[in-house]
Amino acid sequence: MTMSLEYHILQKFATGGISQLYLVMLPNGRKAVLRQLQVSKMFSIRLQRQFRYGVTVHKALSPHRNIAECYECGSRLLRPYELIEYVPGENIKSLLSNRSMLLAQYSLRILQEAARGLAWVHQRGYVHLDVKPENFLCTNNCSDCNGLMVKLIDFDTAREASDKGPRKQNGTPSYMAPEQFRRKIATQASDVFAFSVMAYQILTRANPFEGNTVKEKLHHQVSEKVLPKPPIERNPDIPEALNNAIMMGLTKRMEERIPNMSAWCKMAFPT
């Protein structure tokens, strides 16, 4: 597919992973993001396939309230691209780092919105495989939480949920489930583990698996002998149902964990 939507580049937006992002203006006056494979990565067949497949997944997931919409995708001068929704605001990692009042006031709403986005990925038959605070964009265009939206991004590591074969595991180590380290496999339950780590951080401002070094933290994350302190013990205001969902989501054995985000949502937010 060749590019059909016209646009005007406003500025270089960001560089991350294998992509280059530009903020652009569409003819209707709306801003969008042009996301392209980095020029330096164009000669890698593996990265070309990874980028193109991620775009295909993204297109299949659009539209949804909690997914940054993919307007168009294709290739221009052999360089794959996608035009995606511009989401004004910050990602959840930035909100955590800055101790944002938005996160403090509306943490439950933000978690609900984020969980629905990932649940949609699972309902459509995919695994995201890089669930972390950086990949959830949060915007609040109004003075109350009714204008708050959270949108999931970055599907470059996604794959079909039916593909359970062992392979090199992509992702961010501090959010990866034990089976990704030990057995080199991942399922939707692996996404549930990563999301539960993120939920724990949002609600307690602490990590569920502690240690004096990165190696020690990862050891505690993988070991079945190390259980996290329930988040409700760190923050008594957490609803019991949400506390239980997070703890079930952090179960070390994949077979005993909540299997997908739809089930996690039902447990965490029963009403």
Can you describe this structure?
36% of the residues lie in helices and 20% in strands. The chain is an alpha+beta fold. The protein folds into 2 domains: 78 residues, 2-Layer Sandwich (Phosphorylase Kinase, domain 1); 179 residues, Transferase(Phosphotransferase), domain 1 (Orthogonal Bundle). The strands form 3 sheets. Strands 1-2-3-5-4 form a 5-stranded antiparallel beta sheet, covered by helices on one side. A 3-stranded antiparallel beta sheet has the order 6-8-9. Strands 7-10 form a two-stranded antiparallel ribbon. A hairpin with a 2-residue loop joins strand 4 and strand 5. The longest helix has 17 residues. The mean pLDDT is 92.
Write the layout of secondary structure elements.
Blueprint: E1 8-16, E2 19-25, E3 31-37, H1 45-61, E4 70-76, E5 79-85, E6 90-91, H2 92-97, H3 101-105, H4 107-123, E7 126-127, E8 136-140, E9 148-152, E10 159-160, H5 178-182, H6 188-204, H7 214-222, H8 231-234, H9 240-249, H10 261-268
